[in-house]
Amino acid sequence: MDRKSEASMAGDGETAAHTTEDAPQTFGDKVKQELKEWGATLAVFVPLFLLFSGLVYEQRVIPSESMVPTLQVGDRVAVAKFAYGYDRYSLPFSMGRYIPLPKGRIFARAPSRGDIVVFEHPHAGKVMIKRVVGLPGDQIQMIGGQFILNGKPIEAEYERTVRYVPHRTNWIVTAHEWRETALEDGKSWDTYRQEQGDRGDDTVLFVVPAGHLFMMGDNRDNSLDSRFLSGHCPPVDGVVSEAGCPLSVDPKDASIGFVPMDHLMGRADTVLMTFHKCKLLDGAECRKRVWKGL
Predict the structure, then answer these.
(1) Is 9 contained in some domain?
(2) Same domain, yes or no: 36 and 180
(3) Which helix (H) or strand (E) holds 38?
(4) Who wins on pLDDT, 284 or 54?
(5) Average pLDDT over every residue of 130-158
(6) 41 and 85 inside one domain
(7) Are residues 170 and 249 in the same domain?
(8) Is the same domain home to 48 and 97?
(9) Domain-located, residue 249
(10) What CATH number does the domain containing 191 carry?
(11) pLDDT tens across 231-275, in order?
């Protein structure tokens, strides 16, 4: 075969290959290609997302009004997962409930009084958010709506009275806003108090056991928190100082009681965004929460 024929055959091969590569893709080919590219992207993105949300920050949405006025229903909160160390409750999507991991916490750090904490409900197995007001060894009591810490009322300054419409209701609530300051730590926070005489306004004495925390919601008359006995051991001579007793109520109806530190999932640091519309009446100004440290 002469060189001219070889060149001609080579040229025909190149033309055929070129024609095959440039042939238009069918719809099915395009779908397969897109799925392949998405699969490759997710194979990289999903592990990175899980690693980030498990070790650094994750987003949580506020489901109730227990932390009003600090947090509103629908607020998207950034939760620092590294704040108190890691254990099985630190896993994203609450996977720690289903994976048989050993107990214990690594890089453990204790919360500070006043921290807003995301944690696993000790009895009901759901995610909660409350404020830490009692540390191990603290004595906590409510008397006439006043928060008593280690035998002394914490500093409380009246700020204003507001009226608002609670989430998914059509009635109006009147709340008195107070600024509380824990003098031992110097941290302050706003609370709502409604009418005096609510069932959480007067309690027995609680002595926080080692390895546990006492939590309260800032919306004092709309928060099933550590003040209520349904999640605690029975009082002995008017004092509750132990944890881990069998409950006398359905766990779904129990308060959070004393919260074990190994149930902590992270610290709420700031509101990233919100779909909440201010519902204060009479022209009252809503407090800024978005991109403001909690």
Answers:
(1) no
(2) no
(3) helix 27-55
(4) 284
(5) 95
(6) no
(7) yes
(8) no
(9) yes
(10) 2.10.109.10
(11) 999 999 999 999 999 998 999 999 999 999 999 999 999 999 888
In angstroms, rounded to a whole number, what is the distance separating the alpha carbons of residues 37 and 281? 52
**pLDDT at residue 51, as a whole number:** 60
Return the higher-pLDDT residue of 132 and 109: 132
Q: Which tokens belong to 241?
A: 């100082």
Peptide bond connecting 69 to the previous residue in cis, omega within 30 degrees of 0:
yes
What's 155's DSSP letter? E
Task: Say yes or no: 242 and 150 in one domain.
Answer: yes
The answer to whether residue 7 scores a pLDDT higher than 50 is no
**pLDDT range class, residue 99, cuts 50, 70, 90:** low
Judge if 137 and 222 occupy the same domain.
yes
Higher pLDDT, 276 or 94: 276
Give the separation between CA 47 and CA 274, rounded to whole angstroms: 27
Let me know if residue 293 belongs to a domain.
no
The predicted model gives 11-25 an average pLDDT of 52
Residues serving a catalytic function are: 66, 130
Number of domains, the chain? 2
Question: Beta strand 57-61 with 139-143: parallel, antiparallel or unpaired?
Answer: unpaired
Tokens representing 49 are 């997302």
Q: Are residues 232 and 156 in the same domain?
A: yes
Q: ∠ at Cα 214 (229, 79), nearest 5°?
A: 125
pLDDT digits (tens, 9 = 90+) for 36-53: 777 777 676 566 656 656
Residues 30 and 120 in one domain: no
Claim: this prediction has a pTM higher than 0.85: no
CA distances from 243 to 69, 147, 213, 258 (A): 30, 21, 11, 7
Residue 81 has pLDDT above 60, yes or no: yes
The Cα 215–Cα 224 span in angstroms is 10
CA distance 161 to 159: 7
